[in-house]
Design a protein that fits this description.
The chain is an alpha/beta fold and 351 residues long. Helices cover 15% and strands 22% of the residues. It is rod-shaped, with a radius of gyration of 29 Å. The relative contact order is 0.13.
């Protein structure tokens, strides 16, 4: 299935039916009064979040969605039938924005959440509605009102507990494949991951969480460089961030440089991202071989204000302690009504 996380569509509610101009015509009633019925209301357009959808693919090739119009009123005080509503299912986590202003109109972040994108027009009144003691035979009726129409932008933000961030080839795809049933594409060249990947991690019998892997970040990602900017919104909903750094690429003279660059990109995109608890994971420790080198590099990261773990997704070393730590952070997060404050020495906040 092709992953589509953005779509621009136009929604048009139904027009109300016209009111009817009619007079009662019966035998022995030569001057029957007005009996024109009202027109039916036009149908609304609704967006509804559902777990049955995982992508906005349905909106890629069809851009205009119209609800049905109301039917016209008839004689003998017969009112027109209302137009049926149009309900558009969207994935849970879809954000709706106004195309012109960029204003967030709705955040459909729970299954079953509905939002009315366009209201149907009111049906016109028949001439029977305008009869008065001084105007007993009105010869006019109303037309139905036009339904609302608008252009909206749909953006999907994945719902995950843990978000993996890092440079290309940091080992994010290998890690998510090692700890979950997800099977992303894995190769030794940059930007292997072109779409976000979700995986369910089972820590023990009572604890599991969802982890998300997004395409690798590069310097300038917050300004549109590389692929990361397009997918950074997918980690906005996560509760914990994991900074994955290839330990074999850590410079000896400036070991914290990779972490500083990652946090700078996150902070530049949205300072709120650095209000989340973070874990620094030094990956691919199997490439060094020398355990003393691993310990030396790990020590350099001890003062960054976040837990630091060294792991190998290939051999499995360090993975279980990492998963238990993440489960504990998530459990702590669920007990807090407010997000974790950023550490005082946050690297990203000073970049």
């Amino acid at each position: 299935m092709k992953f589509i996380d953005e779509a621009k569509i136009r929604v048009e509610a139904g027009k109300g039916g016209n009111g009817c101009m009619s007079f009662r015509r019966e035998k022995y009633v030569p001057r029957g009064g007005p009996d024109g019925g009202d027109g039916g209301k036009g149908g609304d357009v609704w967006l509804e979040a559902t777990e049955q959808k995982a992508t906005l693919l349905d909106f890629r090739y069809r851009r205009i969605f119209r609800a049905r119009r109301g039917t016209h009123g008839q004689g003998k005080n017969k009112h027109g039938k209302g137009g049926s509503d149009l309900v558009l299912p969207v994935p849970v986590g879809t954000v709706v924005k106004d195309v012109e202003t960029g204003e967030v109109l709705a955040d459909l972040d729970a299954p079953g959440t509905r939002w009315c994108a366009a209201r149907g027009g009111r049906g016109g009144r028949g001439n029977a509605r305008f009869a008065t003691s001084t105007r007993q035979a009105p010869r006019f009726s109303e037309e139905g009102e036009e339904g609302q129409s608008r252009d909206i932008q749909l953006e999907l933000k994945l719902l995950a507990d843990v978000g993996l961030v890092g440079f290309p080839n940091a080992g994010k795809s290998t890690l998510i494949a090692a700890v979950s049933a997800a099977r992303p594409k894995i190769a030794d060249y940059p930007f292997t991951t072109l779409i976000p990947t979700l995986g369910v991690v089972q820590v023990d019998d009572s604890r599991l969480f969802i982890i998300a892997d997004i395409p690798g970040l590069i310097e300038g990602a917050h300004e549109g460089a590389g692929l990361g900017i397009r997918f950074l919104r997918h980690i906005e909903r996560t509760k914990v961030l994991v900074h994955l750094i290839d330990i074999s690429t850590v410079p000896e003279d400036r070991p914290l440089e990779p972490l500083e660059k990652i946090e700078h990109e996150l902070y530049s995109y949205s300072p709120a991202l650095l209000q989340k608890p973070r874990v620094v994971v030094l990956s691919k420790i199997d490439l060094l071989g020398d355990q003393s080198a691993v310990e030396r590099i790990t020590t350099n990261f001890q003062g960054v204000g976040h837990p630091v773990m060294a792991v190998s997704a290939l051999t499995g070393k360090g993975l279980q302690p990492l998963l238990r730590l993440l489960a504990e952070l998530l459990q702590e997060h669920s007990r807090c009504s407010q997000p974790f404050p950023p550490p005082a020495d946050s690297l990203g906040a000073t970049s």
